[in-house]
Description:
By secondary structure, this protein is mostly helical. Helices cover 61% and strands 3% of the residues.
Amino acid sequence: MSIRHGLLALLERGQMYGYQLRAAFEESTGSTWPLNIGQVYTTLNRLERDGLVRSLPEHEGGQRPYEITDAGRADLALWFATPISRADRPRDELSIKLALALTTPGVDVRAVVQTQRSATMRTLQELTRLKYASDKPEDLPWRLVLDAMVFQAEAEIRWLDHCETSLVRYRPAAPPGRATHPGAVDRADEEARR
C-alpha cells in the first residue's frame, strides 16, 4: 500500500498530526499493516516538500498538524482513479522461495510446500475468525481488508496445491557438468574419488 496516498486520504478528512494519522491508518486497516511513526513523519516531510500537504503551527502540546493542499487532493484523486498494476506490487517471496528450492541441492521442496500450506491454513482460519467477530457498519473498511487477505490466502492454498501436483510430475534436468545418463561418471566425481 502507498503510505503516501494513505496519509493523503486521511488528511482529506481533516487536519491531523503524526500520531493521529498513524492511529487513523491502523484503525482504517484493522491494524493489518502496522505503521511505524517514523514512516509517518518521513512521508509527511516528503509530502510537504512536494507541495501535497502543508504543516500548520504547533498546538500547545507541541504537536504540529498537517493539512492536504489542492495539489494533494489532485494527486489523491488520480491515485483513486488509477488501477494498481501487478508490476507495481512487491515481489512474491513465496514463489521465489519455491523456484530456488527446486534448484538448490538438498532442499525437500515438498516439505517447503507443506510447511507453507500449514501456515497459510492457520492464517486463513484466523482471518476468517476475525472477519466474523464484528458486523458493525463502521467496521466495513476493516472487513474489506480482511476479505482481501482471506481471498489471497485461499488463492495461495490453491497455488500450493498446484505446486504439489506439479512436483509429482517434475523430473529435474541434470545440472551442468553432471552425468546425463545412468552409469556415466562425472569428471569431478571421478577426481573426488581419487
